[in-house]
Amino acid sequence: MSFTDIFKKIFGTKAERDLKQLRPVLDKVLASYADIDKLSDDELRAKSRELKARIQERIADDEARIAQIREELEKDIPLDEKESLATESDKLVKKIDDEIEKVLNEILPEAFAVMKSTARRFKENPVIRVRATDFDRDLSTTKDFVEIDGDYAVWHNHWMAGGNEITWDMVHYDVQLIGGIVLHQGKIAEMATGEGKTLVATLPVFLNALAGKGVHVVTVNDYLSKRDSEWMGPLYMFHGLSVDCIDKHQPNSEARKKAYRCDITFGTNNEFGFDYLRDNMAVSQNDLVQRKHHYAIVDEVDSVLIDDARTPLIISGPVPKGDDQQFMDFKPYVEKLVANQRTLVTSTLNEAKKLIASGDEREGGKLLLRAYKGLPKYKPLIKYLSEPGIKQLLQRVENFYMQDNEREMHVVTDPLYFVINEKQHSVEMTDNGHDLLSGSLSDPNFFILPDVGSAIADVEKSDLSAADKSVKKDEIMADFALKSERVHTVNQLLKAYAMFEKDVDYVIMDNKVKIVDEQTGRIMEGRRWSDGLHQAVEAKENVKVEAATQTFATITLQNYFRMYHKLAGMTGTAETEAGEFWSIYKLDVVVIPTNRPIARIDNDDLIYKTKKAKYEAVINKIEELIKEGRPVLVGTTDVDTSELLSRMLKLRGIPHQVLNAKQHAREAEIVAHAGQKSTVTIATNMAGRGTDIKLSDEVRKAGGLAIIGTERHDSRRVDRQLRGRAGRQGDPGSSTFYVSLEDKLMRLFGSERIASVVDKLGMQDNEALESSMLSSSIERAQKKVEENNFGIRKRLLEYDDVMNSQREVIYTRRRNALSGERVEIDVMNMMQDMAEIIAENAESYDYESFADYVMRSLSIDLGFDEEFFSKAKREEIADRLFQNMLDVYRRRMDTMTQRAYPIIKEVYEKQGAIYKNIAIPISDGRKQLVLSVNLQKAYETEGKEIARALSKAITLYQIDDHWKEHLRDMDDLKQSVQNATYEQKDPLLIYKLESFNLFKNMLEALSKDILSFLFRAHIPLRDASEARQAPAPAQQRKPDMSRLQTSRTDLVTNSGEQKSRMPVHVEKTVGRNDPCPCGSGKKYKNCHGKGL
Q1: Would you say 181 and 554 are in contact if contact means Cβ atoms under 8 Å apart?
Q2: Contact present, 577 and 717 (Cβ < 8 Å)
Q3: Pairing relationship of beta strands 606-608 and 426-429 according to DSSP bridges
Q4: Considering just the CA atoms, what is the radius of gyration of the chain in Å?
Q5: Strands 928-934 and 917-923
Q6: Ranges of H-type helices in 666-771
């Protein structure tokens, strides 16, 4: 017995300990349910209103104080007082969040009991009559499951969801109540397939929605978000909670803004993230759609927070010369390189076979390793490695050359043109490769990066004049930039040819390269690989190479979801990734027991020598199973395999359905019918998530659904997802994985033990090994891959963390400028920062030079004399500079106010009823902007609103301008730091250092540009006759979203969903002259249809 087993015996498993903690809460829920279920329908609805009131009562004082602070911040009060009020407001927001959590824990048993009782009533009663509220009357105009009958609302228990009419037939099990408790606590609930995750979510969603702060339910595709909002929505609406789905409405529309204002908002992970980015490009508060990120439940949390977390959401636009790329130019050179490598590997492998056959394993093994390093996916090589003893020989030779930090590896790789490392997903050109490329051109250094440091040092030592030196340095840097771009292009093309396979990693559809998700086998619409890799694959496949774009806003889902006050998730497979969930999101994974014991039989893996023998065995097994009347779900890991199996089944005359990246618009329908008698469905491992496979009694008697996995996936989680398709709610079933030694996982990470066992037993191709020990060995290989993938993900996320910390600073400043409440505080902070930066440089200047430097930077005088400058310390100079900046700023603003107010007063008093905003031209002597100011506010504040409006406008303009340029610099930096590997340096370390300097310089330039404009600002207006009506603020300088595009740039792998093609459900429509459904007795056009 191992130490782990002894520990479990004493303390129990984690799942047992979790359940022990949750049991007391469950008992309270069940006790409350006994009382609450006795209430009448009207009393039940009154109970939910009472719970709402209890929450509001606890936070009312703090909410009132925040509203009061907002009013105070609008007034003209000292800046230090504004800063203390803003700090107090931030603390109160946190206090309210904490107080809400306390009261929600107190009312949890009653709220869960209310929701369970509601579900029971809808299941048992086709119609529920209750006293009609205004909410019911509004609802009756758009929803057909609510009708108004005088003073009563009639609720029906059937409605449309996902294009199909459903009749409510579910009530929460006890284990589902446990899942609900876990989700409310901000943890991940792992529930087996068929355990009703969608129903479980109704409990914490209802409870948290009572607080009125908004609950977001996040799904992986728009079919599920629309279906779930329609399916579960009526339960929430029955208690007066508003529900909507953002995927039903256009971005930046009033309808989408209204959806976010609802108590419960459904949507896809991508759309939530893109809306956040769009909000941070808005130029008016009226354009904002999202409110505070309070509570989110993420469905299929492993897909969203593990697979999708590393792929940034990007809003981008066209760049000058974006289509000026070199991929097609250098494609012939790379094709020549790949062809030469293939010829070399073929001859090397043939020579290795001869030497090994003659007994020279030393030299033969070296050549075999060379062939493996050259083309590890070369089919003749894979075939040869499945022969007895060959795999072990390769592993022994590789171990020998890898010792001493690969000191002797060059002996193996030098003759190659490039070296592929399949485990690290990388390809590196050798000296032979460089020589071959350069040999095709007149310049031998065409593809070689120059040593910039040495070249610049030589220029410095030369006798050239300062002007000539500068020109020479510029030439060197330009040459480096040109060659760096060239090397990058060739490397990406090489990667495209050597590592990316058509119909495995991508497919060609509509003359475009479309990425295939390795987890679900679905096409990732709008997803592109980053750093020019996608353009390289496009060039390889001779399709249109898309023009490069510039990033305007970007965020990864990891950093988006970490903004929520409370985050929870649910999935069928999360336990294997529990460590990653905790280390990145601080999310604990709790395994929820099944409602009925799992009756599925999970067989040991069947291991074959070759893929051919494995597929033959799979087809034979399918024939055997359908004769028994059992449905079969065949799981594959790529498009290629699914099509091969489909062809083999057609030859045997076996009818079947195929669900892969090329044809999966009918996914939900195909998966729903996969449980019928003798039905064969070929699907990628995780296809059809969110749709249960239901079995008839006849199929249950035959043995249930049979799962056949044709290959072990890199991730145990994906295999568990496939297995979980069978055994729903205690159904019988079986699962078996068929593995061959030629599979990718076995080639890369399969242990020597399996290969040696195969050799010792002298297995034939059609014989299978089956043992629990071997199955465990395969799981260990999967763990190695998971650790490797986690390492890659973590490293990529470290890059984004750098970007995220900068994003938070900029977006906070931008929000402050947009709302205007704290913009003066930000301006004051900029003054302090600039004063300190300028004071740091004071020592290197004399008084006159320093005065000239300050004048050039900020267009102000120093505010102190030479005597003070010579004696003062740096801190004293900074303080005096800051005070002078503040004085100049106030003088400028006062002058503008005094000049503009008489005109504002005249316009308001004579024409105030006509005009809402007034346009005021503001100039700094170089450029001019037209400021839109609220006429009434400007009049009431005696013109002081102008100063705040100017600070808001110039801050927004400058932030957008500088941030856009900074993002471009960061994109260039991320690409260029990869060259640091050639100098044996860590690119991430260089990236962190350089990005910090870039950001520091950007903030300095931003502050300088904002302050210099404010210090020079004046109004060139003469009299009231020049005053004119301004456009509404929301119409000013609004970003042209039609020229921008949303996309997901894939950094390593990919996961996500294509837009669903669910049937369109037309909402209830009412004629303009028909009676209004709300029961008011008026015509629809004069009641709820007014203004439509």
Answers
A1: no
A2: yes
A3: unpaired
A4: 34
A5: antiparallel
A6: 667-672, 697-702, 716-723, 744-749, 752-761
**pLDDT exceeds 60 at position 788:** yes
Instruction: List phi, psi (to 5°) of 655.
Output: -65, 145
Q: Which helix (H) or strand (E) holds 443?
A: none
Summarize pLDDT for 860-918 with one digit per residue, the tens: 888 888 888 888 888 888 899 999 888 888 888 888 888 888 888 888 888 877 888 88
- Highest mean pLDDT of the ranges 566-575, 756-765, 1067-1076: 566-575
Distances (CA, A) of 404 to 419, 425, 765: 19, 23, 38
Cβ neighbours of 317 (radius 10 Å): 16
- Residues forming beta bridges with residue 308, ordered by sequence position: none
Please say whether the beta carbons of 573 and 686 come within 8 A: no
Residue 665: band (very low, low, confident or very high) from pLDDT cuts 50, 70, 90: low
Give Dmax over CA atoms of the chain in angstroms: 107
Average pLDDT of the segment spanning 502-529:
74
Q: Quick check: 342 and 418 in contact, CB under 8 A?
A: no
Query: Which has the closest alpha carbon to 996: 956, 975, 969?
Result: 969
pTM score > 0.90 for this model? no
How many degrees, rounded to 5, is the angle at CA 170 between CA 168 and CA 172? 145
H/E stretch holding 304 reads none
First to last CA, the chain: 74
Distances (CA, A) of 205 to 91, 209, 568: 26, 6, 11
3-state secondary structure of 681: strand
CB neighbours of 9 closer than 8 A, spacing ≥ 6?
none
Distances (CA, A) of 72 to 21, 68, 77, 304: 46, 6, 8, 42
Amino acid at 193: T
Q: How many CB atoms lie within 10 A of CB 701?
A: 11
> 548 near 319, Cβ under 8 Å?
yes
Instruction: With a cut of 70, say whether residue 394 has pLDDT above it.
Output: yes
Q: Which among 582, 578, 290, 336 has a CA at the least distance from the CA of 440?
A: 336
- Give the C-alpha separation, 270 to 292, whole Å: 18
For 923, phi and psi rounded to 5 degrees? -130, 150
Closest CA to 18 of 592, 595, 582: 592
Residues 571 and 718: their CA atoms lie apart, in Å, by 12
Quick one: pLDDT at residue 121?
A: 96
Gap between the Cα atoms of 112 and 998, Å rounded: 52
Tokens found for residue 178: 């446990």
Cα–Cα nearest to 191, from 563, 507, 570: 570
The pLDDT value recorded for residue 1053 is 32
For 40-123, strand residue ranges (E) read none
Residue 574 has pLDDT above 90, yes or no: no
Residues 636, 637, 641, 642: is their CA dihedral positive or negative?
positive
Q: What is the pLDDT of residues 109-130, one digit of tens each?
A: 999 999 999 999 999 999 999 9
- Give the DSSP letter of residue 306: I
Q: Please indicate whether residue 319 or residue 124 has the higher confidence score (pLDDT).
A: 124
CA dist 931 → 248, 729, 1031 (Å)? 36, 65, 10
Band of residue 351 on the pLDDT scale cut at 50, 70, 90:
very high
Lowest-pLDDT range, 97-106, 164-173, 455-464?
A: 455-464
Dihedrals φ, ψ of 638, to 5°?
A: -155, 170
**What is the residue-averaged pLDDT of the chain?**
83
Quick one: pLDDT at residue 690? 56
Query: How far apart, in whole angstroms, are the C-alpha atoms of residue 863 and residue 529?
Result: 55
Is 44:118 a contact under the CB 8 Å cutoff? yes
HEC secondary structure over 556-578: CHHHHHCCCCEEEEEECCCHHHH
Question: Strands 215-219, 418-421: parallel, antiparallel or unpaired by DSSP?
Answer: unpaired
Min mean pLDDT across 258-262, 431-435, 815-819, 922-926 is at 922-926
Helices 174-184 and 14-36 pack at an angle, to 10 degrees, of: 110
